Amino acid sequence: MSVSVQEADFDIGAEIDALLAGRTDVGAVATFTGLVRDINDGSGVHAMTLEHYPGMTESALEEIVAQARARWDILAVRVIHRVGTLQPADRIVLVIVAGSHRGEAFAACEFIMDYLKTRAPFWKREDTPEGSRWVDARDADDSAAQRWN
Amino acid sequence: MNIKVLYFAALREALGTSGETVALPEGCTTLAGVRALIAARGGDWEKLERMKNLRAAINQRMAEPSATVADGDEVAFFPPVTGG
What we know:
Chain A is of the alpha+beta class. Helix content of chain A is 34%, strand content 36%. Chain A is built from four helices and ten strands; from the N terminus they run βαββββαβββαββα. A four-stranded mixed sheet of chain A has the order 1-6-8-2, with helices on both faces. Chain B is α+β, with helices and mostly antiparallel strands. Helix content of chain B is 24%, strand content 26%. Chain B has a five-stranded mixed sheet with strand order 2-1-5-3-4. In chain B, a hairpin with a 2-residue loop joins strand 3 (55-58) and strand 4. The termini of chain B are far apart. The chains are: A alpha+beta, B alpha+beta.
């Protein structure tokens, strides 16, 4: 199972070990971890709630992983995205890409995150001292995804 | 022809519901048509047309406004995604 959407936290080291178990062909592992920050757009954030579209979320993530595998010669991928209510410093998302060499592992890891940001159906709501607000999509995320076209 | 329509995030809150079954009249066969049909109820439903950059999916795949909707489909409307 390469993709998980879950409320529970994850252990990055344990996930890498599980992904590599029994393999001797991997020469490079790239990981990306996204965290909840305590400030966004000038306001303090004391909690964040992630909503998603059950069913579509998993298939969208699997489609993104399939595209990464089609573009780069990579050996194994793991994506975990948390949902529910999170606090500052909590982990939100993990992408692990294992390959023969670092080049394709780095590139595929960045590609998966850029596509996840613009194509996977998750929505963030932040609790701030001024109240609760939905996070607006950022143009920078669209630009980041488009550079892979 | 009946379809299931789902709403997410800020749109779900604005409409006060996470989803409903919608009966489509003869000739209403596209995503854009479904959106216009629901918005035509007026009131808060107009947000379906007014909300900026609204996205949509048919049967859990992103879809363009011109995409065809068929009996039994699951259609979803939502704001641009903000995960990661």
